[in-house]
Amino acid sequence: MPSNIKENGFETLIVESLVNDNGYEQGSNADYNKDYAIDETRLFRFLKDTQEQALADLHILDSALEKDRFFKQLDKKLKCDGVIELLRKGMRYKHLRLDLFYVRPSADNPAAAESYAKNIFSVTRQLQYSKANPLLALDMCVFLNGLPICTFELKNQLTKQNVHDAVEQYKNDRTPDEVLFSFKRCIVHFAVDDNEVRMCTELKGKNSWFLPFNKGFNDGAGNPPNPNGIKTDYLWKEILTKDELSNIIENYAQVVAEKDEDTGITTYKQIFPRYHQLSVVKSLLNDAKRDGVGGRYLIQHSAGSGKSNSIAWLAHQLVTLKNNDGKEIFDSVIVVTDRINLDKQIKNTIKGFMQVSSTVGWAKSSGELKKLLGEGKKIIITIVHKFQFILDDIADVHKDKNFAILIDEAHSSQNGSLSAKMNMVLSGSVYDDEDDLEDKINTIIDGRKMVENASYFAFTATPKNKTLEMFGKKDRLPDGTTKPAPHYVYTMKQAIEEDFIMDVLRYFTPIQSYYKLAKTVEDDPRFDKKRAQRLLRYYVETNKYAIEQKADIIVEHFHTEVISKGKVGGKARAMVVASSIKRAIAYYEAINKLLEERKSPFKAIIAYSGTSEYMGKQMTEADINGFPSAKIEKEFKHDPYRILVVANKFQTGFDEPLLHTMYVDKGLSDIKAVQTLSRLNRSYPGKKDTFILDFVNEPSVIKDAFDRYYKTTILSGETDVNKLNDLIDTMDSIQVYNSDDVDRLVELYLNNAPRPQLDPILDNCVEIYKDLIIEEQIEFKSCAKTFVRTYNFLAAILPYGSVQWEKLAIFLNLLIPKLPSPQGDDLTEGLLEDVELESYRAEAQETMRIQLENENGEVDPIPVGTDVGIDVPELDTLSNILKEFHDVFGNIEWTDEDKIKKQIADIFESVRNDEKYQNAMQFSDMQNARDESNRAANEAVLKSMQSGLELLKAVQDNPSFKKWLLDSAFNATYQPPAHQATL
User: With the C-alpha atoms ordered 714, 716, 721, 723, is the resulting torsion angle positive or negative?
Assistant: First the structure.
């Protein structure tokens, strides 16, 4: 007989594995009660075997009537509390409590082990679940003590069906009006084929949302080839084992209630961990148990990957984690975040597992932290900004305790000074007033180091160089160097490919602005050309007329492309990112005015911090909006508010899945670009795409930023500590201070000398600094700031310390605030009074997809350079400055735009096929390749004469257009040699 490659063969394989290898029982349709969706046979066998006396006292099996009464109460509890709650906490029936599941035993608890062994895991195939439609059958259902916990629809690629067909079957045929498929009746519904697994926790017909439950492959979606079997066999061999399912029920699966404070309506969401969440939490727990206290772990999890739940699951399990001797490893878990709402999320997540009131606390001050520790709170959450102050006066509390520090978005919460302060506090490094100076300095040095009584778990989507160096794993390379990298990764690439988050760069439209400025003075004054160009662009882009023009584009686009096309099921929202508060207010006014003029049903909201002038008064965002700042997020979810105008707010940590479109009028790069544009990436039912309209940024800059964090982010090398000595040498040569100044000031400062004894030493140094030429002022202040910033960071991770470095850091920390900013001549003064905006036009370019590189990204170590200085001003006349400005931003009026586009495409293709260029790419460096690309492009332009002279004339007459064409030809065709591409 040939192999059974049909769907029923796939089903047989899974069932036999569960029964033969995992100790399951195989159920039958005869055991199943369709009225209540229960394996009646095994439910009562479990109760008889474990609670026989209670069963007898309750008379449940005395008659059909009594049994039905029990089933009705069980049905009521399952509808109300859900199967997860009943398994975890049991149910009260009449005067007794019945356990429906026994949790995994702790070590050396034979009684608990005996009870756990009595749990009955069973699987029924081709389950005829429907009373109304007896022929309907589900492929598989897993029961625990007779209660259904997982359902399965199986498909087989060898019979030309896949996981998506299984999903459609759930959506179309497995309706929630059937008892088995009603909300909270089962924990999870799996769609499975031999290649992928998807899961859903609440069936809603067509609106059912299935998430991937895959391992990932090559940092992307899917599963790796399995040399020992089917790709998806981890589902039944790892996840569906008795111990693992019990672990998920005890520590992960839950129903979370969310109450709307305005309406009083409570909604419920059932949660089941995705594979990567389960994997990372289990791995971290195993590592913490193996390593004990003092470990450092970096987790790079893509934005939108369910990080909040991962942090909460990890936190609640760390507080009960025991070593091999049965002793708890950590006394307390401290969660440091920059998101206020994480407190509520963690409390909601943990509520299903333990008593929140006695376990979780929110620390807003050092006094509260002391109080929470005194009350025995095991999990303490604090915002990073508060944590700095909390650490100031609690050092004596912690030296005999062990901590797990969970850092949410580590790149923003782990700056050098905060890290040093945290380490000092947790280590209890407080010197005595009687200590001599050297002892005091050594105590401070020891206190800066990563402490032995704390383990650090740092989560971030975009790890910076400091974060990688401080928390990353350091794998040694053959040449003896190390490249710090994350311990665990769930990449942006995988999240996008799994459709868990949106690809925000899929539809990106740059806007080209064209300006014309008129000179308003008769003479021709001279200005610093480079600074003048920047100032003129700022002047144009912030001009009221320009803002109104761009606002018109925004409002028109929002109505015609977002609202009219029913994006996100007609619920789509948009964000306008402005570069300053004043520009945000100008946008807010212009957009609302345009909305009113077109009688739009929608309005805009503005968001910024502090106060700013509006309508002649200093006003906050709350004053302008007419409701409190705390309500912005909530109001934005409801009409009439559809457009949110922001200035340095809501660009990080803002999770609004209805956000579909972003209008960017602010320069973005590196992490800021990724964080800002990623506000669009949250998935939502009916959300099929996103859109970015960018008035400022070049697509290549955005691509470079995202490439660093698309896959695993690695540090290219460790910070060279000797660069600190280079900085000292430079500062010493400028002679603003001497060693006596440093020693005297530090000794006075650490001995609590009065302020009048400190200032004369510092003020004398400031006067010397003021007498320096501007280049030396810039060089000294830059070196001083770099030294302090770098030393604060390195002191935490270096295995050794330097008394001299520590003294200098203390000295410079006190000196830097007193140093005035270097003041050179303003060679653009009066420029804006001499020009006025004559014309302005903004045109959308072709919408593009920014394709990211399928390679790990590298970030450079902390720069500790001494190459500082100031630009030498290049003076030029206002006429020439305006001419160059118009060359870049002026208009080109093509007579036949389509023909020009075709000619340009032909030029790119000609460059790509040029033999000399191909050889240069393969065997030479990038500069030679660029030279050959330029040559090939120029030759192709000349050949384009046969199709018309307009393109050639534009290249000859317009330097900015020629530069664009050559740059674009190279960027579109250059491919590094294979040996470089795989590095």
Answer: negative
CB 499 within 8 A of CB 214: no
Q: Do domains 273-490 and 508-715 have the same CATH topology?
A: yes
Are 906 and 938 in contact by the 8 Å Cβ rule? The answer is no
| Residue whose pair of structure tokens reads 């309750």 in the numeric block | 58
Q: Which residue type does 818 have?
A: K
Question: How confident is the model over 110-153, as pLDDT tens digits?
Answer: 999 999 999 999 999 999 999 999 989 999 999 999 999 999 99
**Which one, of 449, 459, 408, lies nearest residue 426 by Cα?**
449
The residue to which tokens 């959506």 are assigned:
171
Between 639 and 956, the higher pLDDT residue: 639
- Helix, strand, coil % (nearest 5) of the chain? 50, 15, 35
Rg (CA), the chain: 33
Q: Which CATH superfamily is domain 273-490 in?
A: P-loop containing nucleotide triphosphate hydrolases (3.40.50.300)
pLDDT tens digits for range 31-54: 999 999 999 999 999 999 999 999
Domain extent listing, the chain? 7-256, 273-490, 508-715, 722-818, 897-981
User: What does the pLDDT read at residue 520?
Assistant: 75
Highest CATH level, class, for 508-715: alpha beta
pTM: 0.77
pLDDT of 634 higher than 70: yes
- Four-CA torsion 464, 468, 469, 472, nearest 10 degrees: 170
The DSSP secondary structure of 167-197, one letter per residue, reads: HHHHHHHS-TTSGGGSTTTSSEEEEE-SS-E
CA 137, 138, 140, 146 dihedral sign is: negative
Residues 284/299, Cβ–Cβ less than 8 Å: yes
Q: What is the rounded distance in angstroms from the CA atom of residue 940 to the CA atom of residue 903?
A: 9
